[in-house]
Model the fold of this input.
Amino acid sequence: MSTFHEKMSFKDFLRLDVKSEFHKIVQSKRTIYAPSPKLKQIHRFINKTVLEFADYNSHVVYSYRKGVSIRDAVEKHSNNNFFFQTDFSNFYGSLHLANVNSSLNKQLSNTLVSDIECYINRIVDVTVVDNHIPAGFATSPLLSNICLFDFDNKLFDYCQVRGLTYTRYSDDVIVSGATPEFTVDIENVISEMLKIYVNSEIKINKSKTKINKKGHDFKILGFNILPNGIVTIPSADKKEIESLLYFYLTDKERFENYFENLAIHKQLDLSDKSLQEYAISTLSGKLIAFNSMDKNYISKLRRKYGNTVIDMFIRKSVK
Done:
């Protein structure tokens, strides 16, 4: 750990005053921590040399990992019939300095840095702010996986014994089974395991907690699981995307009108941008998401509407 790609000395890493290297931005009642270029560089280095080598449960975790996708997290459940879904309230804000410190001390045996134990306290200092991992730091996604390692292992073991499937994508938890009996207790089981293996502050978000049955119209992480077990992007979402693309290419006024009707139906706040800016931004966001979810579908859109148009939206270069 002597240099950071020859742009920063290791002494700078040890001496950096972290409090002066970020600022806070409040967005929709959520605080984002924006690091300085120097702190971003340190975070990238820590990710590549330390956090990417930390222990996690590869049977469970599908977020912030190379070679797996959000679709993989859903496909694990495709042969089951009943689905429990939830997420965590204030996820990053509930993962404390003590969680990070304890997890790093237990889970870094595979790192390339032979004397990593000497620097764990410093890593904690530059990745934890206000006693929690902050939204906006590049290290926070990987740290969240690391902090949930014990929880993931215990819930995975619980599910394995009962013939259930458990996956997690960031703070989205899915448990599924062939029959519905598990749904009676699973919320309490997860809540208790969070208390024991993470901390007493992290909670299930009851407003996002759902139980669904195969054959009904519902989404898991943006996908449908059809009765035959096929995982697909919902047809309504595809229709929305293709309508927006068609109107964008053929009639800008209808493009705006179509999006305005969508916004009214979904009760979107359109206060700080023009209607066209919102429509373009929304279409870009959906195409970026679909590109990670189903590249075959994106290939179909490329054939239908042209590579140039799709690439412009995915790269956010549309004006």
